Request: fold
Amino acid sequence: MQIVKTAIEGLLVVEPTLFEDPRGYFMESFSERDFTELTSIDVKFVQDNESRSRKGVLRGLHFQREPHAQAKLVRVVRGRVLDVAVDIRKNSPTFGRYVMTELSGENHRQMYIPKGFAHGYVVLEDDTVFQYKCDEYYYPESEDGIAWNDPKIGVEWGVDESEIILSEKDRNRKQLSEICEF
Reply:
């Protein structure tokens, strides 16, 4: 596996090694030993989640508040998404900035999102399957989110706004400045 640092400290792109032959391919989607050795991050994942979505679905920007903040390792098994992580660590020099990367069943990339980030993605192909590991369980009372179209963050989702499909909850999220000092 290769680890690619992004423009925001702690936010990483993980590129698993593929072993291909005429039958197809094999890869380790995660190795705790290798991840810790390459990143010096000691993370213990406790929950795996999966969603399937059609083209245009936008899920995010989600996070869990302390004491149940979550680090995540996210990937796409089938299809394609534009994956976004926004730094919401109040004392961070990159507070309010985001990194976006395309994750797909073909490129096998993953993104490691540490605690203190809001996360979301927009689906680029029908029948996309998205998986993620979390280092903390889901606690509904800690769930929160930021408006997907917060102008101060300025995520360029790469999809026409008229094609975006949102949950009712995501349609009514507050802007980051209403949640944290910007």
Observations:
- The chain has a mean pLDDT of 96.
- The longest strand covers residues 80-87.
- Residues 102 and 118 are 17 Å apart (CA to CA).
